[in-house]
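User: Good morning. I'm curious how flavin-adenine dinucleotide would be positioned relative to this chain. Could you predict the structure with it bound?
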Amino acid sequence: MDFLLTEEQVMLRDTVSKFAKERIAPVASDNEKNHRYPADIIKEAGEMGLMGIAYPSEYGGAGMDYVSYFLAVEEISRWCASTGVIVSAHSSLVCDPIYRFGTEEQKQKFLPDLLSGRKIGSFSLTEAGAGSDSGATKTTAVLKGDKWVLNGSKLFATNGKEAEVFVLIASTNPGQKTRGVSAFIVESNTPGYKIGKLEKKLGIKSSSTAEIILEDCEVPKDNLLGDLNKGFKVAMVTLDGGRLGIASQALGIARASFEDSLKYAKERHQFDEPIANFQAIQWMLADMWVEYEAAWLLTWRASMMKDKGMNYNREAAMAKLKASEVAMKAATTAIQIHGGYGYTEDFNVERYFRDAKITELYEGTSEIQRMVIARSLLS
Ligand SMILES: Cc1cc2nc3c(=O)[nH]c(=O)nc-3n(C[C@H](O)[C@H](O)[C@H](O)COP(=O)(O)OP(=O)(O)OC[C@H]3O[C@@H](n4cnc5c(N)ncnc54)[C@H](O)[C@@H]3O)c2cc1C
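Assistant: Good morning! Here's the predicted structure, ligand included:
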């Protein structure tokens, strides 16, 4: 679908594809099995500008667009979905709200280190009682003098173990739910901040998922991000962009499932011929590719809309919903095409299957995406 892309976007995609094949692919399985964060790769990605693709060069970004960002996250996730979400959570969920809602001072202070990958970012919205109902935040922030004092605990923060900069949502007007939460920039070296439980997960095991505990954690008054009590808007606008990142991650997993299956179907012989000769297998491959392209087009459209400054809330939800369900189906089909071998660790398709599932859950489950889409259709 290169005809839909600019020369710069194709160049960026091809550069990232080469980097991912040469640097990420050889270590992806081993890192995942050993729950190892790919620190060297993230450092290199930062040096290449991949941790700040869609942000202006004046803050240290690569000065490209969101279509380029989606292409890059797809190429990375084609080989390693863990690395894909590390980049995506950092860029979409931390750099984006600071760039969009931050004061000039906040942008100057935090963006150069984040966009270059010198510091990693993490987004902390979820709590034990606040998942899909993200306005039910119990963590509180109380202004005392020139500090916000934060107390509570957040769950499931991607990059939580490595991150030095958090965008964190806390209640500043308890009882008011979505109208009483605010966003804060919290640095991990702040006294009163600590990492709690690290989740043991089904997939994306090279990325950390952490509990964040805040005990009288004193954050400078100036670290309020956006307006007081308007943190729900910050979170929702941020998640629109985040959903593009997860759609791109899902596309990478779907393409990996397809490409590995195509190769295997040509190589594997049964009944004295390649299994690719059987119509049953051909139809699976055809369906996988059609679905992948449909999801790609939705993601491309939503990214284009973001680049053009349009409201893309519904389109981001559509892209994320479609791409995540396509990834799950493609990974399931890939195991079917690989037969019993697909169920073993000798082939990557079992990893794709485990990784695909998360794309239907985080940054809004599939049910929540359908809710967003339906709400927009009915409004
Ligand atoms: C690996 C991983 C990484 C994550 N990374 C982050 C992160 O970086 N930052 C962060 O803040 N959070 C993160 N999350 C949290 C994630 O976004 C939530 O888990 C997700 O939004 C769902 O919330 P929940 O788990 O509490 O499920 P629940 O909200 O309890 O949902 C349970 C089920 O009920 C359904 N449901 C809930 N409400 C409705 C409704 N109104 N209508 C229909 N169905 C409904 C859901 O779709 C789901 O099927 C991460 C989670 C995981 C597992």
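The longest helix spans residues 231-267. The mean pLDDT is 97.
Let me know if you'd like a different ligand tried.
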